[in-house]
Amino acid sequence: MSAPHATHDTSRTTAPATTMGQKISAGVIGGFAGGVVFGILMAMMGMLPMIASMVGSTSAAVGFGVHLVISILLGLGLTIPFGGALRSYGRGAIIGLLYGVLWWVLGALLIMPLMMGMPIFAVNTMALFSLMGHLLYGLILGLIAVAILNRRK
């Protein structure tokens, strides 16, 4: 007589594995969507020509394009290595907001000022508006990434 084998159904406690394709889609779509919203705010603040100057232009349209490329790359920078952590909307929102703050510090307070010959870590009114944009970007990226990563294959 053999003892019955207990089985444990993990389908309800274990999140489905995400594919690399899902991670890439989440980063591209989430980064693009967040970048569009942030880019609109940047246009309203007159910041796009400054972004365009990174590639030798003063065109707001070029600045918007550069901004979207950066937004997509940063989206991928979150979803490819950390897509597994983006499982719930609450968690996606928190991680996205923290990611936005990280890139505000690295991008707006350090990298851009260094490229432009401006003082680094200068927190003024424009920097605070930039923080708002980075937070919005991260929030949108995180929420869209969760939606895409949790889709059934």
Descriptive notes:
This protein is 69% helix and 0% strand. It has 153 residues and is an all-alpha fold. The longest helix has 28 residues, at 89-116. It is elongated, with a radius of gyration of 19 Å. The chain starts with 19 loop residues before the first helix and ends with a helix.
Features:
mainly alpha, 69% helix
Topology:
Blueprint: H1 20-44, H2 48-52, H3 60-82, H4 89-116, H5 125-149
Order of helices and strands: HHHHH
Overall structural class, as computed from helix and strand content, comes to mainly alpha
Helical segment tally? 5
What is the number of strand segments?
0
Give unreliable regions as ranges: 8-13
The proportion of strand residues reads: under 5%
- Give the N-to-C terminal Cα separation: 42 Å
The backbone outline, from C-alpha atoms, is: elongated
Taking the sheet with the most strands, its summary is:
none
- Helix coverage percent of residues? 55-70%
Look at the structure and give the mean pLDDT. 91
Radius of gyration (Å): 19 Å
